Amino acid sequence: MQSLLARGVYWCTMCQQELPAERFLTDAIRNGAPRSHCRACSGKRTRAKKFNLSFAAVDRLFAFQNYRCALCDKEYEDGDGLNLDHNHACCPDKGTSCGECVRGLLCWSCNAGVVTWYEGVRGRVTPIPLFEKYLNNPPAVAAGLVRRRP
Ligand SMILES: [Zn+2]
Ligand SMILES: [Zn+2]
Ligand SMILES: [Zn+2]
User: What is the per-residue pLDDT for 28?
Assistant: First the structure.
């Protein structure tokens, strides 16, 4: 691995590819050596665990959305800053879900503010097509991760 680092790259054991060393978190325990998987993979693994999905499913969702927020289309390299949004009517707790009610990846402001607001006023305001499309056919359903909810 030292020879890879000399070239400024490192091998991710999860996505099985060489990536620039700055796309890895370093580990104090390992004397500042990069972790064995890249930041994007670390993030996907954490999200998968919290939301009861497989790593492959989360990976597929990121690819499906091109690492962009499903609403505002902002791009996040490595996926940092994209949250997994789920239906709180199914799983009220923040930051976790049964896995069946996951909707899609959203940036912090779309997730925390916009969607919650829209769900609260839905039916009382003129429907906004962008939000209706997201809620009626969320990326997680479109990408085949979860079944469409009745
Ligand atoms: Zn990786
Ligand atoms: Zn957004
Ligand atoms: Zn749920």
Answer: 72
What are the backbone dihedrals phi and psi of residue 33, each rounded to the nearest 5 degrees, phi first?
Answer: -75, 150
Cα 52 to ligand 1 centroid, rounded to whole Å: 20
Ligand 2 centre from 19 Cα, in Å?
A: 26
- What is the rounded end-to-end Cα distance, in angstroms, of the chain? 50
Q: Which residue has the tokens 């499913």?
A: 57
How many residues does the structure list for the chain? 150
Contacts of 5 (CB under 8 A, 6+ apart): 21, 34
pLDDT in tens, 66-118: 999 999 999 998 888 999 999 999 999 988 999 999 999 999 999 988 898 99
User: pTM for this one?
Assistant: 0.88
Nearest ligand, measured from the Cα of 140: 3
CA dihedral 100, 105, 110, 116 (to 10 degrees): 0
37 alpha carbon – ligand 3 mean position (Å): 29
The residue whose two tokens read 């690492």 is 67
- Give residue 44 CA to ligand 2 midpoint distance, Å: 18
* Ligand number nearest to the C-alpha of 34: 1
